[in-house]
Amino acid sequence: MAKMGRPKIPDPDWAAVEKMIAVQNTQEDIAYILGMSVDTLSRKMVAKYGVTFAELYKQKKAWGKDKIRKAMWNAAINGSVPMLIWLSKNWLGMRDQPEDVVTVKPTIIKLIEGKGEIELGTTEVKLDEQTETKKVKKNDNKHK
């Protein structure tokens, strides 16, 4: 008598799965590429590695990021000007132009008796060497 039931889905090429994880393919993408359901991939992964997809993903994703960092570093060390610029801006915090300095003094809220208005204080904004001072008053709240 012939064996009944679903045909067994073969195990995937695990090295290929690890590479797909390293380049941050999702579990759904990997399952689709392998021609199996997410649940089947999950069961096979636990049977093979003893960990869930999320745990393996965390490990292999870190490996993939490390490879990218090394490739970026090597490109910069080997003279790639765009990579040197990118790394200097993103890793070293350098900029093409210095940004304007903005200084703001604390605002004081003060009730002016007899005038029936609230003074919201003085704010000083400093851009380069120019100083601009503004007084902001709120006249819609009358107090006596």
Distance between the termini: 100 Å
How many distinct helices?
A: 5
Summarize the amount of helix as a percent range.
40-55%
- The low-pLDDT segments are 133-144
Q: What would the principal axes of the Cα set say about the shape?
A: elongated
Strand content: 15-25%
Structural class: alpha+beta
- The strand order across the widest sheet is 1-2-3
- One letter per element, helices H and strands E, the order comes to HHHHHEEE
The major pleated sheet works out as: 3 strands, antiparallel
Query: Would you tell me the overall average pLDDT?
Result: 78
| Count of distinct strands | 3
Number of domains: 2
- How big is the Rg? 31 Å
Report on this model:
The chain starts with 13 loop residues before the first helix and ends in a 6-residue tail after the last strand. The chain has 2 domains: 14-90, no CATH class; 100-137, no CATH class. The longest helix has 25 residues, at 53-77. It has helices spanning 14-22, 27-34, 38-49, 53-77, 81-90, and strands at 110-112, 117-127, 130-138. Helix 1 crosses helix 4 and helix 4 packs across helix 5. The chain is elongated. A hairpin with a 2-residue loop joins strand 2 (117-127) and strand 3 (130-138). Mean pLDDT is 78; it is low at 133-144. Helix content is 44%, strand content 16%. The protein has 5 helices and 3 strands. The chain has a 3-stranded antiparallel sheet with strand order 1-2-3, with no helix packed on it. The protein has 144 residues and is an alpha+beta fold.
